[in-house]
Amino acid sequence: MIRTGLSAALGGAILLSSSFSASAIQIVLDYSYDTSGFFSDQLRKDLLQTAASTLGSRLSDNLLAIESAGSNTFNAEFNDPATGASETQSAYSVAGDTMVVFVGGRDLGGTTLGLGGPGGYSASGTSQTFFDTVAARGQSGALDANPSDFGPWGGAISFNSTSNWYFDTDLTTSADIQGNDFYSVALHELGHVLGLGTAASWDSLIDANGNLVGTNVGSVALDASLGHFADGTSSTVNGVAQEAAMSPSITTGTRKEFTDLDFAALSDIGWQVTPVPVPAAVWLFASGLLGLIGVARRRA
Ligand SMILES: [Zn+2]
User: Fold this and answer.
1) In total, how many domains does the chain have?
2) Cα 82 to ligand 1 centroid, rounded to whole Å
């Protein structure tokens, strides 16, 4: 009886834990094409990883693994982040709930700060299930004629190696930004990799007047490219007004976090967007409470 009570309590603890944090998308950053050495500084990698984790931790989709094995072969195709040339990772595999983003720096010219988007692919095999997994990773709406969901393997991002970047050593403050805030641009380009402005399920939501129309975003004007919200589109972050991350530009010396509108758009193109994570103190309290329940069960 004691053992039963214990294992029931442990099972409860595991369930509680997973409901808070375990179901997130891991965005793995691959620097193997960063031949210009843009990311040779660890601070730059850390900032990009923080941006990736900030977005991935809010997504609870179950992305099926893509496994090249036997007669099934998946080839990931993307633009080399350091040269722009077409690259292929042949017989590639991506773990479940994971996306891979190839990143690097190159001279993008002019005022462009970054270029990012989901990758393409080719596949061969004998199983329709395999082809569907490669195309949609279990997000069935992504296979519809007018796609309502998106299940990418990942993609690529180039950051302009000639821009005047600001690499923040303390993301808790944004008053000291001089130049172009790398963290903000990282969030924006990762948004493109996640399908904002790039996925077929984004295109499905664009009306004849160039607005994005969705359950969560309402109706929002897009820029001329139809790949961003219109310049100056306002939203909120924790109740504070801010220009949307997925507008086409950023003011030098400012930070743009992912706003409520940006997350709403992720939801409308098919992502399962979770609420802001419960603070650690609340989680500890819940954990302690469960411990008490466990004790009570053992006594019973
Ligand atoms: Zn953009």
Assistant:
1) 2
2) 18
